[in-house]
Design a protein that fits this description.
This protein is mainly alpha-helical and 315 residues long. The chain is built from 15 helices and no strands. Helix 5 runs antiparallel to helix 13 (254-263) and helix 12 (224-248) packs antiparallel against helix 13 (254-263).
Amino acid sequence: MVQVMLPLALLVAAGGCWPLIFKDIPVESLRTSLNRLVMYLCYPCILFAVAATTPITREVLSVPLLVGLASLVSGGILYVLFYRLPWCRHLSDSTRAVLVLGGMFGNTFNIGVPVLIFFFGDDALRYAVFNDMLMTMPLVWTLGVWIATRLGVDGAGIGRPAVWRIMLTMPPIWAFLLGTASQQLDLSYPPLVSAARFIGQATIPVIIFVLGMTIPWRRLTPRIEILSAAGVKLLITPLVVWGIAPMLYQPLQEAQYAAMVEAATPAMMTTLLLADRFRLDSAAAALLIGWTTILFWLSLPLIMALGWIQAGVPH
């Protein structure tokens, strides 16, 4: 646990302390600039490098399939929990919608990759890449946008954006497609792939640093609705993968255990972006990201102890 989590914890702590030390730099401006650096340069490079060297196999595709199914099941549980049961009627729709979003989708790349690499080696990066491109991004910008604009009353008057237009303007999408095409056509150029991988290595450190600046440390008070959504995200979602995987794949291989790692990750940072874009409860989004990130220290060892994740599984 120390080997996996210490680098992440140090980066989160550095991001949290940065505004206290360098008070002359606006936090929002710095966070926006770093996010743009990742979105337009670092993240597309790592996606291209991995896609250009990874054959598309049944095992690789099992990760987005299993994590996607678990996310949908968790979304249904969260909908019932926050919209159908009487105990949450005092919450606004904007709060409930953002809790459903945050509880469905995890930080599967930036948190998931270090854990995957620890368990399964450097090649496990491919699981996070294919999960992000084939599950997280399509679902977030379709079902996620629907949840934000239909279940969040405050966002209902904004209108639903042109989802495909948004996705087609994202550099990561094009980088992944270009890398996949070059691999399928056997046109990958090793020096270019190595250069892209080198540039892309900055993705996770930068985003984890930004995560430290995003967590509202001074307002990190426990709230029952936040902790409930965190419990679904950190425990129920991987439990669903653990239950579904043996029905579809026998015997379980490395990819299926990697899917459990991906399902167990904390709430994605894009939850805050969606909250800002569709006028949902940004404070609740930041709290959920903060609490799931902190509680991940406890939930991951528990999942390991239960045997849901096993290292050294043969390919």
